């Protein structure tokens, strides 16, 4: 049973939140804004790369090659120029990210069965886009080359002899369309949960200290643990509301599936929140102003975002950073939420992550509670 003192403290905290427009905005509007902004912008998909073409042949055969690149989602035919100088200028200015140069004797050599080379130029200033564009350009070129080879054999009556010895049939599980939103939206839930709970918890307690009201609470019969629980409970409930809010928008707007148990996800989210609340409580014992508390929260979020697998794969990082990432709780929660939502796995497949979150939450909350109680004394 909740004591009357604790119930009154929780009620007081909700009243303070309701009377603070900034807190309400941060609590309910920011998560949805972040979801839409990052859901659309933080994507690894490379589509509609502006392509400039310098076709010196100007024949139906060369147009077929151009159409092969234009038909793919990767490229958008943005410019058709008449000189290599114009092509270079467009790429230099950034108006085009790739260029296709077709030699003047392209169709003649293709029809005669000779090997002909075309040039494909890439802007390598952005390696992420360039690497994906390079792979797409090679794949489209090889596919078109295969089509030309089959047509040549058909003209010679040898099409039946063209039977590749190997056929690779690719199946993509969990995300067949390779949608970046399926990867990003679950990660956003973890980031929003940690950011909001840490920041709101830290600033709420520091705000009491700034206003001098925490001394009034100390002289009341409220025990230390009741003060901690009373201050944290509203933000736990708000965090779960924000989680469900983002989950609903992600499911109905971005189409992210929920293949696993929602109850399991909520239970493991509560485990993750234990560590996040501990971080916020610990920061509140160090900061003297709300601005300082917010800066400290953002200071902890930077390594969390970069070393958790939120944006960048952990396997591509140096061994030292990979070792440090084991201290980041969001690393484990991202594995949990992506596995539950996209793969539909159960707790048995997530034992290591659950144990890691439990240890981190216990250590962080214990250290924060002891330090907070010491500050009260």
Notes on the protein architecture:
With 377 residues, the chain is mainly alpha-helical. The protein has two domains: 4-42 and 179-376, no CATH class; 49-161, abc type-2 transporter like domain (abc type-2 transporter like fold). The protein contains 14 helices and four strands. The protein has helices spanning 4-18, 21-41, 60-71, 84-93, 106-111, 127-155, 180-211, 213-218, 224-252, 262-286, 290-306, 319-325, 329-343, 351-376; strands spanning 49-55, 75-80, 98-102, 119-122. α7 (180-211) packs antiparallel against α9 and α7 (180-211) packs across α13 (329-343). The longest helix has 32 residues, at 180-211. It is elongated, with a radius of gyration of 29 Å. The chain starts with a helix and ends with a helix. 32% of the residues are buried. The mean pLDDT is 81.
């Amino acid at each position: 049973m909740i004591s009357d003192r604790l119930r009154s403290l929780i009620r007081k905290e909700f009243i303070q939140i309701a009377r603070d427009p900034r807190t309400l905005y941060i609590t309910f509007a920011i998560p949805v804004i972040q979801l839409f902004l990052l859901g659309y912008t933080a994507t690894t998909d490379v589509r509609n790369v502006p392509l400039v073409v310098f076709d010196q042949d100007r024949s139906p055969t060369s147009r077929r090659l151009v159409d092969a690149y234009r038909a793919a989602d990767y490229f958008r035919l943005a410019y058709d120029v008449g000189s290599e100088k114009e092509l270079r200028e467009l790429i230099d200015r950034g108006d085009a990210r790739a260029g296709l140069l077709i030699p003047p004797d392209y169709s003649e050599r293709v029809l005669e069965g000779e090997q002909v080379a075309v040039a494909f130029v890439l802007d390598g200033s952005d390696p992420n886009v360039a690497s994906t564009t390079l792979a797409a350009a090679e794949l489209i070129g090889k596919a078109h080359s295969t089509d030309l080879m089959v047509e040549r054999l058909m003209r010679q009556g040898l099409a039946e002899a063209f039977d590749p010895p190997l056929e690779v049939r690719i199946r993509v599980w969990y995300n067949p369309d390779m949608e970046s939103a399926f990867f990003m939206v679950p990660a956003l839930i973890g980031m929003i949960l940690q950011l909001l709970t840490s920041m709101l918890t830290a600033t709420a307690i520091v705000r009491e200290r700034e206003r001098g009201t925490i001394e009034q609470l100390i002289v009341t019969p409220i025990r230390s643990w009741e003060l901690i629980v009373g201050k944290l409970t509203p933000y736990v409930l708000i965090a779960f509301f924000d989680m469900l809010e983002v989950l609903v928008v992600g499911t109905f707007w971005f189409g992210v599936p929920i293949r696993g148990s929602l109850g399991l996800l909520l239970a493991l989210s509560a485990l993750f929140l234990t560590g996040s609340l501990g971080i916020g409580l610990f920061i509140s014992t160090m900061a003297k102003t709300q601005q300082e508390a917010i800066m400290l929260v953002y200071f902890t979020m930077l390594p969390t975002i970069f070393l958790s697998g939120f944006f960048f794969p952990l396997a591509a990082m140096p061994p030292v950073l990979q070792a440090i990432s084991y201290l980041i709780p969001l690393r484990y929660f991202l594995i949990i939420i992506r596995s539950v939502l996209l793969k539909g796995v159960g707790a048995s497949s997530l034992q290591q992550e659950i144990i890691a979150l439990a240890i981190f939450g216990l250590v962080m909350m214990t250290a924060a509670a002891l330090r907070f109680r010491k500050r009260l004394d």
